[in-house]
Amino acid sequence: AMAPKMNWDTQRDYTSKFYSCEPCINDYNIQLNYIIKHVNKYTKKAYRDDPTIMAWELANEPRPMRPEANEAYKKWTSSTAAYIKSIDKMHLVTLGAEGVMGTEDVELFKQTHAIAAVDYLTIHIWPKNWGWFSDTSIVAGLPNVIAKTKAYIDQHITIANELKKPLVVEEFGLPRDSHSFDPAHSTNARDTYYSSIFTQLLSSRKTGGVLAGSNFWAFGGTARPIPGQLMWKDGDDMMGDPPQEEQGLNAVFDSDSIWKLITKNTALLK
Fold this sequence. Notes:
Elements: H1 8-16, H2 22-37, E1 55-57, H3 70-87, E2 92-94, H4 100-103, H5 106-114, E3 121-125, H6 138-163, E4 167-172, H7 188-206, E5 211-214, E6 219-221, E7 252-253, H8 258-269
Parallel strand pairs: 1-2, 3-4, 4-5, 6-7
Helix pairs in contact: 2-3, 6-7, 7-8
């Protein structure tokens, strides 16, 4: 018989137990050691000695999941960040967090980024996943999306200023107009959305603010969605969208008009 799938509530309970599971944390640390000390067979350098690596993240979007797990979560983030620093003094360390949307607690986000071993703050912004617009009305919902995005960034700028640490908008994305996955479809709303974030970043850089960088999600390159197939399958090209999401959802392809905007704003940051 097929095993029953966990619902979201059950999964939250299950995931929250990681932070107090000593065997789980031990296995995590073994993998951590393997990656950081791994020697690249091409450069002959260990990753901890590689200057092309900017930073280590504890995880992608680590969440405590339950208030009952908050203390264990704080202990894990603190001890893990300190441990990474003990075996790699060259690279920056951050949690990889989404921001308050992930911790569901402003003070918890602040406390876990206040420790000395954490060098900077990150946030992720996902208007579609967070229900900031309807799937079929991206263009109509864009003003609200931009307003909420600015407010979310500003909220975390305030926290970063309190902690005297830089802030990076580490992930953000928006589907193509009309929620199409076709690379030939327009990206007017996405272009405008990206521009709003770049404008906020440039303003911060000009005034010496804490907002230090941004990374759009994600590079799709020359890969293309397969007509009639929504999800990734083994053997398909990788295009930035994770396997559990529609391929082409947030990917920025090599043919997209937005590259002009990205190139222009990157030049202005130099």
